[in-house]
Amino acid sequence: MTAEQMPGGHAARTVESVVRNELSGRVAGHVVQAGVIHGDVHTGDLYVHPRRERVVPRQLVLPPRLFTGRTQHLAALTHDVAEQDDAGATVAIAVIGGPGGVGKTALALHWAHRNIDRFPDGQLHVDLRGFAPSGEAMSPEVAVRGFLDALGVEPAAIPPGLDAQAALYRSLVAGKRMLVVLDNVRGSEQVEPLLPGSPTCTVLVTSRRRLTGLVTRHGARPLDLGVLTEAEARELFTRHVGAARVATEPHAVAELLGWCAGLPIAISVVAARAARHATFPLAVPAEELREESERLDALDGGELTASLRAVLSWSYRALDREQADIFGLLGLAPGPDISLLAAAALAALSRPRAHAVLQVLEDAALIQQHVPGRYRMHDLLRLYATEQADDDQSRDDRDTALRRLADFYLHTAFAADRLLEPHRPLMEIDPPLVPVVPVVRGGRPHRMPDRAAALAWLDTEHPCLLATHRLAVTRGWHRMVWQLAWTLTAYHGRRGHLQDDLVVLRAGLLSAHRLEDTTALLWAHQFLGAAYALVDRHADAFDHLGQALDLAQDAHDVTGQIHTHHAFTWLWEVQEDDQRALEHATSALRLCRGLDQPVWEADMLNSVGWFSARLGHHEQARTDCQAALALSRRHHYPQGEAYALDSLGYLAHHTGDHRKAEDYYQQSLALYRNLGDAYDEAIILDHLGETQAVLGHHDQARHNWQQALELYRTQHRAAEADRTQSRLDEHDDREHRNAGIPDGGA
User: Fold this and answer.
1) Which is it for strands 221-224 and 202-207: parallel, antiparallel or unpaired?
2) Contact present, 349 and 355 (Cβ < 8 Å)
3) CA angle 340, 342, 347 (to 5 degrees)
4) What is the C-alpha to C-alpha distance for residues 625 and 602, in angstroms, rounded to an integer?
5) What mean pLDDT is predicted for residues 59-71?
6) Which pLDDT score is estimated for 167?
7) CA 228: distance to chain centroid?
8) Quick count: other Cβ atoms within 10 Å of Cβ 685?
9) Distance CA 364, CA 373 (A)
């Protein structure tokens, strides 16, 4: 099979950056194979290389520091898991149920850390936010994608669709002794795709609901958790404030614990307040709490019990105005948690001042620093904080704070995007976004030194960025909606968040229509067309790209025309119409030559050369690809250089100059390895092996095919792996038949 015929050949390249017009250009001929999106050459840390050490996820968050009691529950949990392990027929599942704030997560984490030796192959953990005040629980798609990331699967290897991703996840954990903690679950359907299929795995589930579906369909063992006993509550309080204080004021302790009603979250808040005033008699907070409770309004139902509301109200009134306002704003902040810098932007404070206030809130047990520099709230605390913000702060103040936070996320995401895609054109952002870190409302964006740091920030903040985008949609911040959608496209392509990309881009298009902004509409149609292309909805892709091209031509927007033409080249290639693809590539190159964008021009030259080669116009193709190579080298653009060398290798191979093809492929391979691009490394190894086989270098060909096979398997590229394995089998059969016969060369 020739390189032109191979499904994983030269055309299978970084489709997300080309079809999205992410606009560092690249070759035009890129395909999606079996719906798998291929990674980008910019980011060397996207791929799991077979020579890399096996990934063992350790996702458990810190165990509760002062866990108390629950002896019988811990023993029951161990018994249930062991009994299911002994049965060995299916995965062991335990469902810890109970009301909010009763300590379900604390029990699960305490047991998990105490039994961590049972799970040498790793521990996965996800908070599914089933009862978040926003009402937006985490979807199974997001959760399983997070597990695949934790298991070391590069984005290039992650298939679209929940069913395919869940199947890959189950395959990766099969036969391994792993623990999966599914925290804060809303319903059985939310977690069923996250259940391993292997009896070697154990699953802990926490939920405020009885998940009868897991019990009846999957044999889960329910474990109901009630409030602490009087003795357990007293022990927990004592561990917080000290035995001496408790012993000297038994009546005050009894009153305080009476208000807490055995609820661990309430005990922690009361104890934290008492601990902050170590010299005060415990009768003082008991009296304060008694008086505060008399001012509470009657409840109209819900999960926030009267006693807990009294406890929280008491602690809230102890905060100064600044601390109370920030506590309320944290309840409103979008996303499951918040960083120190984001909190500073939300509150319009300096980083040191914000840190000081967050420390006070953490000391009062009103927030938790679950990982260094990141803070979150229990759902009940968030609900209470939101109530207080609504009561104590004006709508304008709340909106201004949220807009500061949204600006922080937008501008920092833009700074990250510039590191990922330095060559794509800047967009109109208000305030203007420029490569130099700007000052924005609420402070400066987070500084990132390089692409690796940019990806790390985006990985961490992605749930908050999506939540901020939803906030912008609900608040009608239309310019923010489409700008943030645009800013996230490069990241979504690299990490394979295809459905998230469609969601934000659809909303971005609607906002662009609301704004009646031609530029926004052009880019929204273009990127949405690219997003549809990535999920094989080609009719939708042609529709939106056609609208984008019409808008660009009507507005005489040369940049928009260039990159829309470039996107069309891929779409026509997958339709097997290389002539139409070449026409678009030629148009893009002609327009590009009127701009001072040498990197774009290099990519467009290579694109024209590639389609010319596919159509058999070899001399013209060679001229264009050599010009692309020279331009890439002159402007220190290694990605473009690697692509051009690959194209030239393809040309040399198909015109019979196999030694020159081997040299081109070797140069391209070295560049890809230096870039950390394991995806394209596999393709070049495949091409190189084919050329070496023609030259009679059979041992070298076999060696390179074997390396390509290892990469294909590591990246879960089944079709390419099967094809390469067949080639190796044919090679070995031929060598066996020819054993003892001298190598005859080409």
Assistant:
1) unpaired
2) no
3) 95
4) 9
5) 86
6) 92
7) 38
8) 24
9) 17
